[in-house]
TrEMBL record:
Name the record gives this protein: Crp/Fnr family transcriptional regulator
PANTHER family noted in UniProt: CRP FAMILY TRANSCRIPTIONAL REGULATORY PROTEIN, DNA-BINDING TRANSCRIPTIONAL DUAL REGULATOR CRP
Keyword hit for Kinase: no
Domain Cyclic nucleotide-binding: 13-133
Species of the source: Actinomadura napierensis
């Protein structure tokens, strides 16, 4: 089977707005700060506002029937949160928790829908957010079926490195520090693998000189090589 093409991240919701749209949306919002580990929204809550992250990283988790939290995604600067629950008129389907100090804009539901009515072209951005997240979920599911644990982790870290580089430029040597600081348990939950599998995979990627690691800190030192390892690109000659 031919390797799948990498899915390069699109600009976040906020970055895709023009100046007038940002001004109008900021006027409808209130600014709020969240400390590390603070929840931004809870699974099962009523949907009365959306959130736009201005700074910082969060994780999206869902609780299973036995009380186990599963990591579904990370969201970072410029991302729109909780919009599907508000626009669909249903309760929150997941909990969002700060991985770092977060600064965000909180927009009441009626003000957000009013903003969309006044700026109908932004509806396409919201729809694009839905579609991209469904595509990302499908891609991870296919990777789970077709790839080894180390390949799945390589793909996940490459995706996170590309997203991180949108907000903090790579170092002069081209290395990229991954912004969202996830534990081995969190990485394992996201890729449906044990902590031991993640630890072995990190060891293998370090030995291949593709990453460096510290306490909750992963630096990608060879992004093209990491993509090639994951099977997303042909290795360079």
């Amino acid at each position: 089977m031919a390797p799948s093409s990498p899915c390069f991240p699109r600009p976040g919701f906020w970055a895709a707005l023009d100046t007038a749209q940002r001004t109008a949306l900021r006027a409808a919002a209130r600014a709020r700060q969240y400390a590390v580990k603070a929840p931004l929204v809870y699974q099962g809550d009523e949907s009365d506002h959306v959130i736009i992250i201005e700074r910082g990283w969060t994780k999206v988790t869902s609780s299973t029937e036995d009380g186990h939290d599963v990591v579904l995604a990370v969201r970072g600067p410029g991302d729109l949160l909780a919009e599907s629950a508000v626009l669909g008129g249903r309760t929150r389907s997941a909990t969002v928790t700060a991985l770092s100090p977060v600064r965000a804009l909180v927009v009441p539901a009626n003000r957000f829908t009013g903003f969309l009515d006044a700026h109908p072209d932004v509806w396409m951005l919201v729809t694009g957010t839905f579609v991209q997240r469904i595509d990302d979920s499908d891609r991870r599911l296919r990777a789970h079926v077709a790839s080894r644990g180390t390949q799945r982790l390589a793909r996940l870290l490459a995706d996170l490195a590309e997203r991180s580089a949108q907000h903090v430029p790579p170092a002069p040597d081209g290395s990229i520090v991954i912004g969202p600081r996830l534990s081995q348990e969190e990485l394992g939950s996201w890729m449906d693998a044990s902590r031991e599998t993640v630890a072995r995979a990190l060891t293998g990627l370090r030995a291949a000189a593709l990453i460096r690691t510290g306490r909750r800190r992963i630096t990608v030192v060879d992004l093209p090589g990491l993509r090639a390892y994951a099977g997303d690109a042909e290795p360079a000659d």
